Task: inverse folding
């Protein structure tokens, strides 16, 4: 089942120069969006965490969970993925190529982050991996300023891009037992409501 089967239609006025000398064509209203969190996903318990591996795509995830690759739009909608090229993790080889084309020096420093600091009881008082300026130095409760090597660590361009890509691997998947209900809610939310442009609940007219 394709996502666009549920997207409502719109009558679009096609013309070259004069909008009074054109004709209407029916197209999908690709700008139709719904508030997933508020209206479609009322409870986090209907989702489960999933970590993507190389070569996995929305359609393969859909097949693994729902025995049908056509529910790839559910995977994308749940995770608010608008552009697969930007929002989906790259495979290792593609990532390597991307990094080498983006940076003349992949191993050069991209930014600096804090190193975790603990008190005498072993409780953390400064979390690690917080981006800071290179000049940052941690000052202990006793007023002692730690050295650069004890305060911060360097993150290379390569490490930065790998970390950013890895974060995209952490997605949410709708549990299979909630799929049918999700589809029905989605179809209802995508329908048009009466207005001056309203023709039916899945068709409106536009002359912009």
Result:
């Amino acid at each position: 089942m394709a996502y666009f089967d549920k997207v409502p239609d719109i009558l679009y006025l096609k013309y070259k120069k004069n909008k009074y000398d054109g004709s209407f064509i029916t197209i999908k209203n690709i700008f139709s969006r719904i508030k997933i969190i508020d209206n479609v996903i009322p409870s986090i318990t209907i989702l489960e965490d999933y970590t993507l591996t190389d070569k996995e795509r929305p359609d393969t995830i859909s097949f693994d969970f729902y025995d049908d690759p056509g529910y790839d739009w559910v995977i994308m909608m749940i995770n608010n993925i608008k552009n697969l090229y930007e929002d989906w993790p790259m495979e290792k080889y593609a990532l390597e190529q991307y990094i080498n084309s983006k940076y003349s020096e992949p191993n050069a420093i991209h930014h600096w982050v804090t190193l975790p600091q603990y008190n005498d009881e072993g409780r953390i008082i400064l979390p690690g991996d917080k981006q800071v300026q290179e000049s940052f130095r941690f000052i202990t409760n006793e007023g002692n300023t730690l050295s650069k090597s004890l305060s911060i660590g360097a993150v290379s361009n390569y490490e930065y891009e790998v970390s950013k890509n890895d974060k995209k691997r952490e997605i949410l998947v709708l549990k299979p037992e909630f799929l049918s209900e999700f589809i029905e809610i989605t179809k209802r939310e995508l329908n048009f409501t009466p207005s001056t442009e309203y023709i039916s609940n899945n068709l409106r007219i536009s002359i912009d």
